[in-house]
Predict the structure.
Amino acid sequence: MRSFNVTLALFALGFSQAAFSTPDSELGRHHEDAAALPSAAAASKRYQVFVADLSEINVAIVGVKGMVCDFCARGIEKTFKKDKFVRKVDVDLANGQVLVAYSLDKIIDQREISQKILANGQNVTAVAIVKI
Amino acid sequence: MAFSNNMQDSVYYHYSPNHRLSLGVEAVNNKYTNQNYAYWRATYLLNRKNRQRSQRNVYLEAGISSQGSNEGFASVHYDWETRRWFSGFGVKRVSDHATDYSETFFKVGIAPYLGEYGDLHTWLLLKRKRDTRLEHWLTYPVLRFFKGNFFIEIGYKSEIEWDTHLMFRF
C-alpha cells in the first residue's frame, strides 16, 4: 500500500508541473528553419498527385518530427480537417511530411500550424507555403 | 479500449484534453477475485522525444478503484519506436482488497513491411511479462495490426491463453 501511495504522489507531482503548459520550445523553431525546407517536396511525385485535382489554393508543406506511426498520426488529419478552409490533407509517414491544401480565403499562420501538430504530440521542423 | 487476459477483462473509455493528459473510466471484471469494479484513471505523458525517424515516450498512469480510495494502481510505461522497430517496458503496482501485486512487461517488435498512411500496418512482437500472483515470467509472441482508427494486439501462450488489446479512436 505504501508503494502505491508513493507512486501516486510522484504522479501528482509530475502532473502538477506541466500538465497544461505548452512551452514555446515545443513549438519548434520553424521560422528560423524555413530556408532548410525540403526543397524537393514541391517537385515530388507525391506532391504532384496531391495537387492534381486542386486549383486556387495554398498548399502548406509541413515537416514533422516524431510522426512514425499511422495510428498516432490520425489526429493530425482530424485536426486540420476541422478547419473549414482546409480542402485536403495528406500525411507522408516515410518523409515526415504533411501537406495541407487551404482555400485562398485562409490567411495561413505558421504558428497555428505548429500548434495543431503539437496538439497531436509531434513537432514541426519547417513550413513552406506554395500557391497553386 | 478493451483488454482481455487470463486475469481480467476490462473496457476503458478516455478523453484527452491535450496530448499530455487523458482521463477516463475503466470497467473491470477481475477473474482472479471474481469481482466487478471500476477505476477512475489518469494517464500523463511525462516525457516525449520526437526525432525525425523515432519517438520515445514515458507515461505515468494511476487509477482509483470504485471500491475505495485505498485501492487502485499506479504504473510507469516507456516506449521507443521507429517505423520499423518497437520497444516497450512497463511496471504496474496494484492494490486491491485481496492482495497487492505488480505486473512487469517488456516488448520488442519489428514491422515486416512499412505501410503508407491508411494501409493495414502489421507488427510482430515478443512480450515477456510477470504477474507476481503467478509463479514465473512468461514469454510469448504478439501480433499487432492497425488500420485507420482501429488497433488490435493479440498474444497467445498456452499457459495463460489469450492476451488481447483492442483500441478504437473516435
